[in-house]
Amino acid sequence: MFNRGAAVPAAVALLGMALVALPATAAAVEPRGGHYAQSKDNVVVATFDVSGGKVRRFWHSDDCARYSVPVPAMKIGANGGFSFTGTGIKNGILQEYTVKVSGKAVSRTVIAGSMTYQKTASNGPDCKTTTKFRAKRTGPVRT
């Protein structure tokens, strides 16, 4: 004799697990290639390009990081996220920084994240800033 009472809860449990797993994979967004930027009060908060599955030429300006601090290209993962952490990074005037950048595509044309720049050596006082950004696609990749 077949016991239907045990099969129904098992099927419901499997369906429930499938529905829980679906939103996590469906939420992954692949950002559209192009140039992304955010500015506030005529100051660049963040600007970068998305091309070849990477975030390239990431740049930020504030009271701590006034001169371009080079951030290497960051690979965009399957979940639409990217990150970089590095120490001893020197800008064009030989100031040394520790840099942490992370972000994630929240839509095909918007990427949000945060960055921390901490000056660790060279001229001027030590400083540290953490800034959140929400950059929008403004056009094609800049050359």
Give an account of the 3D structure.
The mean pLDDT is 85. This protein is globular. It has one domain. It has 143 residues and is α+β, with helices and mostly antiparallel strands. The chain is built from one helix and eight strands; from the N terminus they run H-E-E-E-E-E-E-E-E. It has an eight-stranded antiparallel sheet with strand order 4-3-2-1-8-7-6-5, with no helix packed on it.
Give helix and strand order, one letter per element, not per position: HEEEEEEEE
Uncertain segments: none
Number of strands: 8
Fraction of helical residues: 10-25%
Number of structural units classed as domains: 1
Read across the widest sheet, the strand sequence of neighbours is: 4-3-2-1-8-7-6-5
Tally of contiguous helical segments: 1
SSE diagram, text form:
Elements: H1 4-26, E1 34-40, E2 43-51, E3 54-59, E4 74-75, E5 81-90, E6 96-107, E7 110-121, E8 127-139
Summary tags:
143 residues; alpha+beta; eight-stranded antiparallel β-sheet; 8 strands
Short description:
It is built from one helix and eight strands. The chain has one helix at residues 4-26; strands at 34-40, 43-51, 54-59, 74-75, 81-90, 96-107, 110-121, 127-139. An eight-stranded antiparallel beta sheet has the order 4-3-2-1-8-7-6-5, with no helix packed on it.
